[in-house]
Amino acid sequence: MVDRFFQPVSGMDLPRFAGVPSFMRLPHLGMDHPRIGDVQIGFVGLPWDGGVTNRSGARHGARQIRDLSTMVRAQHPVTGLRPFEAVNCADLGDVNPNPVDNGDTLRRFQDHFAGLRARGIRPIAVGGDHLCTLPILRALAADGPLGLVHFDSHTDLFPPYFGGSALTHGNPFRVAVEEGLLDPGRMVQIGIRGTMYDSADRDFARDHGIRIVTIEEMFDRGIPDVMAEAREIVGSGPAYLSYDIDFVDPSVAPGTGTPEWGGPNAYDAMCVVRECRGLNIVAADLVEVSPPLDPTGGTAWLAASLLFEILCVMVEAERKPTT
Amino acid sequence: MVDRFFQPVSGMDLPRFAGVPSFMRLPHLGMDHPRIGDVQIGFVGLPWDGGVTNRSGARHGARQIRDLSTMVRAQHPVTGLRPFEAVNCADLGDVNPNPVDNGDTLRRFQDHFAGLRARGIRPIAVGGDHLCTLPILRALAADGPLGLVHFDSHTDLFPPYFGGSALTHGNPFRVAVEEGLLDPGRMVQIGIRGTMYDSADRDFARDHGIRIVTIEEMFDRGIPDVMAEAREIVGSGPAYLSYDIDFVDPSVAPGTGTPEWGGPNAYDAMCVVRECRGLNIVAADLVEVSPPLDPTGGTAWLAASLLFEILCVMVEAERKPTT
Amino acid sequence: MVDRFFQPVSGMDLPRFAGVPSFMRLPHLGMDHPRIGDVQIGFVGLPWDGGVTNRSGARHGARQIRDLSTMVRAQHPVTGLRPFEAVNCADLGDVNPNPVDNGDTLRRFQDHFAGLRARGIRPIAVGGDHLCTLPILRALAADGPLGLVHFDSHTDLFPPYFGGSALTHGNPFRVAVEEGLLDPGRMVQIGIRGTMYDSADRDFARDHGIRIVTIEEMFDRGIPDVMAEAREIVGSGPAYLSYDIDFVDPSVAPGTGTPEWGGPNAYDAMCVVRECRGLNIVAADLVEVSPPLDPTGGTAWLAASLLFEILCVMVEAERKPTT
Amino acid sequence: MVDRFFQPVSGMDLPRFAGVPSFMRLPHLGMDHPRIGDVQIGFVGLPWDGGVTNRSGARHGARQIRDLSTMVRAQHPVTGLRPFEAVNCADLGDVNPNPVDNGDTLRRFQDHFAGLRARGIRPIAVGGDHLCTLPILRALAADGPLGLVHFDSHTDLFPPYFGGSALTHGNPFRVAVEEGLLDPGRMVQIGIRGTMYDSADRDFARDHGIRIVTIEEMFDRGIPDVMAEAREIVGSGPAYLSYDIDFVDPSVAPGTGTPEWGGPNAYDAMCVVRECRGLNIVAADLVEVSPPLDPTGGTAWLAASLLFEILCVMVEAERKPTT
Amino acid sequence: MVDRFFQPVSGMDLPRFAGVPSFMRLPHLGMDHPRIGDVQIGFVGLPWDGGVTNRSGARHGARQIRDLSTMVRAQHPVTGLRPFEAVNCADLGDVNPNPVDNGDTLRRFQDHFAGLRARGIRPIAVGGDHLCTLPILRALAADGPLGLVHFDSHTDLFPPYFGGSALTHGNPFRVAVEEGLLDPGRMVQIGIRGTMYDSADRDFARDHGIRIVTIEEMFDRGIPDVMAEAREIVGSGPAYLSYDIDFVDPSVAPGTGTPEWGGPNAYDAMCVVRECRGLNIVAADLVEVSPPLDPTGGTAWLAASLLFEILCVMVEAERKPTT
Amino acid sequence: MVDRFFQPVSGMDLPRFAGVPSFMRLPHLGMDHPRIGDVQIGFVGLPWDGGVTNRSGARHGARQIRDLSTMVRAQHPVTGLRPFEAVNCADLGDVNPNPVDNGDTLRRFQDHFAGLRARGIRPIAVGGDHLCTLPILRALAADGPLGLVHFDSHTDLFPPYFGGSALTHGNPFRVAVEEGLLDPGRMVQIGIRGTMYDSADRDFARDHGIRIVTIEEMFDRGIPDVMAEAREIVGSGPAYLSYDIDFVDPSVAPGTGTPEWGGPNAYDAMCVVRECRGLNIVAADLVEVSPPLDPTGGTAWLAASLLFEILCVMVEAERKPTT
């Protein structure tokens, strides 16, 4: 039974450039809305870039992605899935950050996602920089470490920056492993490339058994083969999907703070998500979209398109009994 | 008594770049919302540019103005007025246009504003191109012609274009006079400039007694003097305020389809609205903001700032008994 | 015998950024020019986007493509063909649209192309949005339906929009089939992708025997294989080539109103045209280039490059006896 | 008697964004056109920036100004003059530069303007950088030195650059005085400002009796007073008007290579030309528009608007007996 | 005696677009350079925007201002001062911020400016956001509170944000007064405008005797009159000059995070600095230039031009005995 | 032994957007610096585009590449090479061009590179347009012709332009062969594509035995196979690597004056350099980056990434005995 309340506005009725822009044109619900209890998958904006060590702007990501996401339609072109009819989806608004206090923000985010978890809502977080992932994991891994499928050009397993700062967008997965939020044996990082400071991040991965697939390996073996291995690694347990937009080549996604040349094109960028079908994705994020660095808004439009792909994978997981 | 429901979100709580963007961060109400009956002044988006004869893009105006309007705060810097506390304001969303059928769109718009009028809501329409003004006037002038204070670089009193089309963004005030929606003796057009096709529009103005203040006259006499005359002309009866963003110099407001050099700067652009205090403005519009022509978004930010000025004038009128 | 009159200016003589920009630097001829009778292939600008349901700007396409087309040189790099020496080509200017009256514009366009047909000029239309194709087909299919090779991310076979509007840029091929202008059995649509409203367009295709090649199929089989099938379908009869720039990936062609991620790169975008050699293309269009959405002008430069490829295919067809 | 051949296309017939763009939508005539003998005032493009010592791009100026000039209409808003009906105007195309050989280019330009002079055509040159002025003066001052009214932020009276190069865009007026092409006692330079290398240019002016009006003096005295003096200085003899777009403040005209803050706004930028009425302007130029430095195209649109003002002054001079 | 070592490269020798860009093309000296002891005025970059509560990007300010500052020449156009010959100036590089730890950064900045003070170098700090001013004041006010001349559209006297954060770019002058770093009786804030949260900042000013000149007052009285009062207020004691680029109208300086419409134009923006002649400015800053928000780089070019004006005022103060 | 003096600043210490930007954050040394004798590989900026026949702007290339190159880190992701530790690298600044005198500039450049050769410094030149290569070759080929591996979309073997100019960016390799600076039998040009004037360049190549690999051949055979042949052709003798950024597809590198569609993506753009390992590259250049044509700066970031790849190949060659 399709719940009309949770259906997005159609571009056949209201042109896609019109209307107050919510994610995918879904209803925008505050946490005190009477229908909040019926939401199954919620988009959550994280307008914050306090973890950025390089070029900023990701604080504007969620809003611009909302804007461009109004061009998304209702049906997947390959599978035919109509996700908004299959499960109840909503735009849950943004979580209030404190732009001048990282510690405060991390607490606010963690509390918010703990609240969603308590309600049984599977979140799709829209960043924001990659440090956003850490408080989400802290909220969601309360019952045990999660698996991780991670698309990125960087491992984000780096040691502290600037003489001792361990909480930046370059460290979240290192910290999450150290805090026991992720199961390193169920982690895979795909698309890694770019010049390196040194080998500290890769040493950490090797020491903890984290699987890194460089871009060279991905292109050599092909996406289907790599993703088959990724599904094997992550297994059937609850898993987190983290998609840093700088996974994609900067010619496709210029709007990001730390781009690295030599990444996949848009077709491959979508294919890797489609290959996550079958995983039990309990939460996901898409991060590091920085609108001020993208004069056309194309990066946000790609992000919206990828969010639809992520949503479809999660809808399929939601409909099956979870472990 | 301040009604908390109708207060905008403060940038001291949620940073101004965050959140789903509604006009001025006001609550976004559909026409079926339980509080709709309490709205006194409503912002209405008109995402349509079907009347444009030149460069388009104004269909995107309302959305980008919403986005930038989240930088507006709660108090007027000169008068100290706190408009959102004085009257109940809301974002009433966009009216559905039909982008490929101008006649259909004009009917839809007229019907919508007739509905607002029936509810006693004073509308501030956010265009959209200048043809949007016509269906609003058709809806609101049901009891008799209105006065008009009109800021623009063009008179929009032109005869038909393209071999006979009389419903374009160059004609609305000619048609409105012909239809008896405006009282030509209570009309004033300020800021007129730019190369001319011929003198047909000015002949029409002269023949009907419409007062045109060219930019040369405005700069020569000064704004206070010109606006004193304008208030005299418009008088105390119900009046409409129409603000075409191309009134402002293109160095300040490049994001518009038919810019004309030699207009006022931003300070003057705001002053002319402040000088409308005392008029009984029953409805207003701000039109012709075309985001694709403005890489910085500054034009939309100016538009949002002007809308706040317009709102303050209307709030003061709302609080006084109207004639 | 090369006709000097019809040769473009060389960049070795006048730098390519100089001069009044006509298509390919060809002579610009009005319909009353004394040499009009000698034109064999004519570029025709259609500065109109009245059929657009989403983001506009294609009205500016023809002019910016003219501008960038002055970087095209005289010889094809692979075949060695020198098209301007092989047949007489010209820039025939723009057809006057009526930007505020779609019905009027459709009539004007149809009349114009009927006139070209009467003179035996094969047109290459430069849009403008995809609704432009409909009046061209109405003019050219007077003797019977044409075949179609169609590159696009959308089928443009959609049912009416906005409560009943069947003449938008989303409907031209549906209407053309219904009006008998195209032979559905000789139609192929290549590159189709993107989220879907529903399956109505694909149902129409299936019911009428129109062949759709999705982007997934195109990438899986490869362009040579797909295009061999396309040539088979279209056959040796007169055919129309329609190229929507949104066929190409948005990273390559951001300047279009309804981009869909996951399309071909520039090399493939040119290859598909080269693979049309052998078809009897009697007319063609390239549509949906929207300059305001492309800060670098790259999309128009790609369009100009594709127009050269299309021209070369048509020149080869022109030189052979047609069926 | 108005000559229909020389009338521009009206935006009431063909929308202003449409058509092959010539200056002001005038007929585009080559020097071998049958009507060339009837041209009285001709716009000439100079697509060259070989004299630039700083940021380049002025080679693209003429084309972009053509593009934007299609928004100019037929009648002056203040005087009511309809210049295209008063004298025969045309777009005479671009003069071929040699982008890699400055000496060759200077000769080509001089020859071309000598040819126009022989035909009695008064040229309005559209640059290109300010060195373009020198070959024009060499061609036109054959019978004796001209007067000069010069709007600029720089005197362009500098000594040689880079260890001995005297032919750059910083030197044309120094060289012209030295070559006897200009009468220093009839020269006035208005708007001069910006940080200085040293005082060499002002010393040259003082030594030769050239009048420099700094921006400080212009703002202190006001434009009418300054321009009255300028008319006095230039007198009734034949005079040249040279307008460097960097005269205008960079907020208004960012598209230029060497902008200097603190210049006039657009209104004043037009007023100074209007105040040239009564001078016997036999030729003029507008230079230093650099499109790659202006994302909105506004600078070119201002340039087109200024060219219309210049044209009107020249038309009035053309209609009166010259000294 | 001019010290050749401290002279900037001339654009007559190396074109202004060439070379590694240091501030004003001055020598770039680290703190361990052998000539550091001879520096009298040093430009210091502060690449940090950790205090921003709204749109960020000021971390990129110092670098882009360096880039554009290479267009500054050696001599003041009005006074004739050649500042680089009068005192020894240098680019002292950037101070290392910690982009993810505001407390750490504030300490680093304070320590650095304390070191400059110990060496007797008068700093001109180039931000960075306005919170940068606080650690500078903490370092420089060791011997007693300073006077302040402050150009801005905001008072930056606000109470804490986001539920208790008092160290943002909206608070530095409130905190500085509370810490006794500034003498409120010798403070003047000029150009204040824009919508207000409430009156808390103005109440603080009134209670402490800080003089606020709103933009309305500035325009009404004129700059000379206002600045005469400002000099009176600040007096002859050591004073700090703080210039927030958002003092200037957004049409002139779009590249800033919190623009407010209705500010001065570029001419006035420079005049207010010139009117500071006679003050004993011991240190200065120019802050809030955000390059990602300015597609043309014009804001940084204005900032560089203003820095030259500030430098000239400080050079004149440096040459006179200080109180 | 790593020489600390020659190590770049780490982004772990100073954020990558901070500091005065030198190439790769290396020390910036003038030719009179005491450590100049220890430099092994030097980056040299050539801020000049006097050879450009089409769209200019490459004069700004070196500076913007310096800016973006501060995002490069210290270690190669595939080979693990840490080039800055392996050999002493430095930024040697820009060579002074004369922007208005091509002959003078060519002499200055040649003299400068002769000086580097005398000191035994292997240069990596950063353009600037492709004519820059000629004076470098003139300086470096004093002992005999060099081999060449050349990535480009154009052969740059064209005959003279504009009626006789043989020294443009379209001719350097033709002239170099004619002057005996290159050994045509050891030359390979890869990636050639785009419409052609005629076949004059390819005839020259065939007549002299220069190997041209078109883009079609490169894509058909694959990069490893093509590059194996390239290494075979160039052999073990001293060779020059010339990389024109327009080798890369314009979707990836829009910031160049003469882009040609259908080139390689960023991954392939880097791979071709990696496949040069084993060649004895004694000098290299990267040219034709034109920042004004690239709103995002992405082209310069790609150029910086490619320069790192080129550096790594040269470091490996430097460490081995040369022939």
TrEMBL record, chains A, B, C, D, E, F:
One of its GO terms (biological process) is putrescine biosynthetic process from arginine, via agmatine. Binds 2 manganese ions per subunit. The keyword Acetylation does not apply. Keywords: Hydrolase, Manganese, Metal-binding. Its cofactor is Mn(2+). InterPro entries: Ureohydrolase, Ureohydrolase_dom_sf, Ureohydrolase_Mn_BS. It comes from the Bacteria. Mn(2+) binds at residues 130, 152, 154, 156, 244, 246. GO terms for molecular function: agmatinase activity; metal ion binding. Belongs to the arginase family. Agmatinase subfamily. This is Guanidinopropionase. It comes from Albidovulum inexpectatum. The lineage of its organism: Bacteria, Pseudomonadati, Pseudomonadota, Alphaproteobacteria, Rhodobacterales.
